[in-house]
Amino acid sequence: MEKKYSSASELLHCGDSVQTLKVSTEAMPLYATTAFTWKTLSEAEATYQRVEQGYDYTYIRTCNPNRDALSEVLTFLEHGEKSQIFSSGMGAISSTLLTLVHPGDHIIYSNCCYGETLDIIRELLTGYGVETSCVDFNDNQNILNAVRPNTKMIYTETVANPAIGLADIPTLAKIAHENGALLVVDNTFTTPIAYKPLDHGADLVINSLTKFINGHSDAIAGSVTGPKDMINKIYHVGMFLGTPSTPMDSWLVLRGVKTIELRLPKQMANAAKLAAALEKDPHVEKVMHPSLESHPRHKLALEMFGSNDRMGAMMSIVLPEDVKKMDDFMSRLHLSHYAPTLGGIRTTFQNPCTSSHRHNSDAERRAAGITPGMIRISVGCEDADDLIADFTQALKAFD
Ligand SMILES: Cc1ncc(COP(=O)(O)O)c(C=O)c1O
Do residues 189 and 282 share a domain? Predict the structure, then answer.
């Protein structure tokens, strides 16, 4: 600024010249700006036209470089054509459902999904006149039986929250496509490191990036990945709903996701070891992890994931329903804490009845295999033997 103005006016433009520097950065800068600015109408018009064709930037809710950078990573990881980054996993789920399912359509969904996913289908979609069928996805016949002429979508999680059921993605894709429906898969528990649903016939894949993708428990975001035309439609609805991610959260998740190939193999191997050890512990009534032969779909898990140490880092155990002893067990644990989240580098656990599924009725929970004694464990990057020793000593609370 050449002309001298008052310091209050000049202060507002101080540092602008930095933006004219052409720099190449080692890490993605944080574009924490609500808007990009232009000097002329023609520059504004040209930018808006470029936004429609690809990457350029106008207003924070419609487009932002941090979101774009993160969407490229998700597209790469999930083998899709395009991704859109949302304010949360629920932002991605709600925007996707509201784009693709309309009054008079029918959706078949798994009875074992994240609690608020169940809520949005039951409370919001049914209120808009969408027909819904809630089905146990552990038996493919249930899904076939639920198909109607107006079925538009089959919705499931790959590995289900919290009972660790496994959806038969290739068969579900076949059922969906033979009946003119879309298969939409929430891959949050599994991650694209273990399984890429789009490679096996799913039409869209959703991730809560708040979890393993970020991995550091310090940001919230969500994504949907799939064919360009469908992602573009979801983008427009997300923009109207105001569900795109903030630059800061996208920036944090981009930083976190860069180490996912280091974190997840260790976390998945740890989960298989911990599950095997806890299955032998006499204090534990039941252990759910796809690596266990006792898992009803262990064979399918081997087909889908390849080996026991690649079957995800989420597991659940069932403890005796004695609140005092459960409290004692939890407070004896040194290496993990009750945290109503998952997917961080440290092991955490939660009780679905008091956290993720507290809004669901007892009947709904029991139909999905959720009981008050269930503890869902998100296995971290600690040493596996340390984790096993810590859980083993804490379980003595049930002696
Ligand atoms: C499987 C699954 N999907 C979606 C969500 C929602 O994610 P967010 O909290 O980022 O909205 C969660 C949250 O725990 C989840 O477990």
Answer: no
Which 3 state secondary structure label does DSSP give 30? coil
The atom number, within ligand 1, closest to the CA of 356 reads: 14
Query: Could you list the pLDDT tens digit for every one of the 399 residues in the chain?
Result: 566 899 899 989 888 888 777 888 999 999 999 999 999 999 999 999 998 777 799 999 999 999 999 999 999 999 999 999 999 999 999 999 999 999 999 999 999 999 999 999 999 999 999 999 999 999 999 999 999 999 999 999 999 999 999 999 999 999 999 999 999 999 999 999 999 999 999 999 999 999 999 999 999 999 999 999 999 999 999 999 999 999 999 999 999 999 999 999 999 999 999 999 999 999 999 999 999 999 999 999 999 999 999 999 999 999 999 999 999 999 999 999 999 999 999 999 999 999 988 988 999 899 888 999 999 999 999 999 999 999 999 999 999
In this structure, the residues whose C-beta lies within 6 A of any atom of ligand 1 are 88-90, 114, 157, 161, 186, 188-189, 208, 210, 220, 222, 356
Identify whether residues 247 and 130 lie together within a single domain: yes
CA distance 265 to 268: 5
CB 190 within 8 Å of CB 342: no
Total tally of structural domains belonging to the chain = 2
